[in-house]
Amino acid sequence: MKLLLFILSFYTFATHGQKKLDLESFHLLARPDSVVTSTPDGIIYVTTDSNSKLYSWIVPKVETKFASAYSTLLESFKKQNPQPVKKHKIKNFPKSWNSVYSYKGKYYLYSPPDWSSNSGFYISESVIYITSSDPSDLYVITDCTVTSKFEASFNVVNYFGDAKHISIKAIKPEIGIYSWQIFDDNNNEEAQFIMQNSDLVKKLPMIVCDCGEKKCDLEFDFTN
């Protein structure tokens, strides 16, 4: 009863002056801490409900229902690239990495309305997988230097045979925040990401675009 009253109070606040959500048919994915906005189709809220399934969904996994897609991609790589796939000593460096966003000086996880748009990385002994529902690239490790659990670098070859260098360094290790930089073969930076060591995923709040059990167009604008 207390939980229901808690949720109702947030809906009342967020939907004041608007058409309200149908609470009887709407099933929240997590318990809101605070509401950002609400529409008749869904609600955007911040949660620290780390026991919700959202905190499990965001952790990249290779052994999932998409496992065959990763295997197919790797086998295709082996057929078209001379680069051998070997095992390397990753030691105690974190393996699973989820995306994270910075908003008004704080770090947040993000649950989009369409989870197929969410991606991360998984570092195995031989491959850095780009985790998504439709994987189209990967990084086969050719060499690596693991300085500590807070810093590592990898020389890799992607699916298309292009050599890359990936540098990973801790920014806020207490909450698992690391910088990922990807360079081409000429040491030109191609991309930079802020990622989180998924072992510490419960350390961060999550912004949730919750459409219940249907799809909708809710999106949170991190540039605002």
Mind summarizing the main beta sheet?
A: 8 strands, antiparallel, barrel
Structural class: mainly beta
Overall 3D shape: globular
Query: Helix content range of the residues, please?
Result: 10-25%
Query: Strand tally, please?
Result: 13
- Stretches where pLDDT is under 50 for at least 5 consecutive residues are 1-18
Calculate the mean pLDDT score and round it: 85
Q: Please give the alpha-carbon distance between the first and last residues.
A: 36 Å
Summarize the helix and strand pattern as letters.
HEEHHEEEEEEEEEEE
Strand order of the largest sheet: 3-6-7-8-9-10-11-12
Tally of individual helices: 3
Residue share in β-strands: 35-45%
Q: C-alpha Rg, in Å? A: 20 Å
What does this structure look like?
It is a single chain. The chain is mainly beta and 224 residues long. It has helices spanning 2-14, 53-57, 67-80, and strands at 34-38, 43-47, 96-99, 101-103, 106-111, 120-123, 127-131, 138-148, 151-158, 163-172, 177-183, 189-197, 206-210. The strands form 2 sheets. The protein has an 8-stranded antiparallel beta barrel. It is globular and about 55 Å long. 26% of the residues are buried. Mean pLDDT is 85; it is low at 1-18.
Topology:
Layout: H1 2-14, E1 34-38, E2 43-47, H2 53-57, H3 67-80, E3 96-99, E4 101-103, E5 106-111, E6 120-123, E7 127-131, E8 138-148, E9 151-158, E10 163-172, E11 177-183, E12 189-197, E13 206-210
Parallel strand pairs: 5-13
Antiparallel strand pairs: 1-2, 2-13, 3-6, 3-12, 4-5, 6-7, 7-8, 8-9, 9-10, 10-11, 11-12
